[in-house]
């Protein structure tokens, strides 16, 4: 903050003056702090709801828009949702702490190739982003392949996300992070992942050169909030704390156990995300043991995303011809669409992301 700035205020036109002042005070509950001149008022300073507003009938400007977050927007002016002050200022009445809006899913087959360099864009702090699900399944999901070319400290701050579901998988390199009530900062290495429950405060501290992570979130567009008052790490360690019904998960690949997958000849390591979200979403890493292909399959979930981590595989699907895939390639299969994996290399590792976590996976037609 600039030390010599004492206060800030929004200046709005005020014609007609008396009616506009009465609206802000009587209808919206602002407190009058100053009015002048006494014999013929033309300006007033009000305060309320975290705002200072200066009304001045001598000002010629656009009337602007003010948004008020309310516990119950319907309790103000008959629940109109939006009001217009006598001076023309629009007043938007919105619900404070409104639940996350999740668009209805619009499923489609999606295939992306890492070799398509045109798919990378430069985002915040020089990070490179590649959209694994263009179209975002109607705005319901976002899946990003994120690359940080240069290592070192990351210019991040304590923040949290207003989401339904969010996970980070460390694909290559390492990244040092810290999370609310989860102890000291730790390093995510290649193969590790975290579930970031809604609202958990966290911060990225530093990374290796060439870091790559895969981030999946729902909904695709969500708000990120800063928390300047919280210092991380916090003094408590509460691994079983829930955030909107979900627990934080830190999955370490080096300590994982492998179990039989739902298809013979394959195995998987489960990250624990399905259990921590009470079945909302899950992530597993799948690899072949004795098989090089699967039978045709379908699923009945809202999202099935596969990302090729290592090796090679061919996807045979009902949406088109066979597609040969290499590391970094990915595909989304809509519910009810038959597909199979073929020509699986011995070193194949496949990221398997599902919402819900326990989607039925059965033989296709």
Describe this structure in words.
This protein is mainly beta. The chain has 3 domains: 10-95, 2,3-Dihydroxybiphenyl 1,2-Dioxygenase, domain 1 (Roll), CATH 3.10.180.10; 116-252, Jelly Rolls, CATH 2.60.120.10; 255-363, Sandwich (Jelly Rolls), CATH 2.60.120.10. The protein has helices at residues 17-27, 136-139, 273-276; strands at residues 10-13, 31-36, 43-48, 51-56, 65-70, 82-84, 90-95, 110-112, 120-122, 128-131, 142-148, 152-153, 159-162, 165-172, 174-179, 186-189, 193-195, 202-207, 211-218, 223-226, 242-243, 246-247, 249-251, 259-260, 266-270, 282-288, 297-299, 303-310, 313-317, 320-325, 330-332, 339-342, 349-355, 361-363. The strands form 9 sheets. Strands 8-31-28-33-26-25-24 form a 7-stranded antiparallel β-sheet. Strands 9-10-11-19-14-17-23 form a 7-stranded antiparallel β-sheet. It is elongated. The protein starts with 9 loop residues before the first strand and ends with a strand. The model has no long low-confidence stretch (mean pLDDT 93).
Q: What is the top-level CATH class of the largest domain?
A: Mainly Beta
Which of globular, elongated, flat, extended, rod-shaped describes the shape? elongated
Total tally of structural domains: 3
Low-confidence stretches: none
- The SS-based structural class is mainly beta
Corresponding CATH superfamily of the largest domain: Jelly Rolls
The biggest sheet, with number of strands, parallel, antiparallel or mixed sense and barrel status, is: 7 strands, antiparallel
Q: Mean pLDDT across all residues, rounded?
A: 93
Q: Which topology of the largest domain does CATH recognise?
A: Jelly Rolls
Helicity range: under 10%
What is the CATH architecture term of the largest domain? Sandwich
Distance between the termini: 64 Å
- Rounded Rg: 26 Å
Give the tally of β-strands.
Answer: 34
Q: Total helix count?
A: 3
Name the beta content range.
35-45%
- Placed side by side, the strands forming the largest sheet appear as 8-31-28-33-26-25-24
């Amino acid at each position: 903050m600039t030390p010599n700035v004492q206060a800030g205020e929004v200046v709005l036109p005020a014609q007609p003056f008396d009616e506009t002042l009465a609206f802000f005070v009587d209808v919206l509950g602002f407190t009058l702090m100053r009015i002048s001149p006494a014999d013929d008022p033309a300006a007033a300073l009000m305060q309320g709801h975290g705002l200072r507003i200066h009304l001045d009938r001598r000002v010629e400007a656009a009337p602007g828009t003010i948004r008020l977050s309310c516990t119950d927007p319907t309790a103000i002016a008959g629940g109109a949702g939006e009001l217009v002050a006598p001076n023309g200022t629009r007043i938007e009445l919105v619900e404070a702490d409104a639940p996350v809006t999740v668009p209805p899913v619009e499923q489609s087959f999606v295939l992306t190739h890492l070799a398509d360099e045109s798919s990378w864009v430069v985002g915040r702090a020089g990070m490179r982003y590649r959209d694994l699900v263009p179209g975002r399944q109607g705005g319901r999901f976002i899946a990003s392949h994120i690359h940080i070319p240069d290592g070192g400290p990351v210019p991040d701050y304590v923040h949290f996300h207003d989401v339904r579901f969010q996970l980070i998988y460390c694909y290559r390199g390492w990244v040092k992070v810290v999370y609310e009530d989860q102890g000291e900062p730790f390093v995510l290495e290649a193969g590790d992942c975290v579930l970031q429950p809604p609202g958990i405060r966290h911060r990225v501290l530093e990374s290796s050169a060439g870091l790559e992570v895969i981030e999946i979130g729902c909904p695709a567009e969500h708000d990120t909030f800063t928390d300047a008052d919280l210092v991380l790490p916090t003094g408590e360690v509460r691994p079983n704390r829930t955030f909107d019904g979900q627990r934080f998960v830190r999955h370490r690949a080096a300590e994982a156990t492998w179990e039989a997958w739902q298809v013979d000849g394959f195995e998987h390591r489960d990250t624990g995300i399905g259990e921590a979200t009470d079945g909302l979403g899950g992530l597993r890493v799948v690899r072949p043991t004795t098989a090089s292909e699967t039978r045709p399959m379908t699923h009945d979930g809202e999202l099935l995303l596969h990302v090729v981590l290592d090796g090679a595989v061919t996807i045979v699907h009902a949406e088109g011809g066979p597609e040969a895939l290499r590391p970094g390639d990915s595909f989304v299969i809509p519910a009810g669409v038959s597909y199979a994996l073929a020509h699986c290399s011995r070193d194949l590792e496949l990221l398997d992301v599902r919402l819900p976590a326990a989607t039925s996976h059965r033989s296709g037609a």
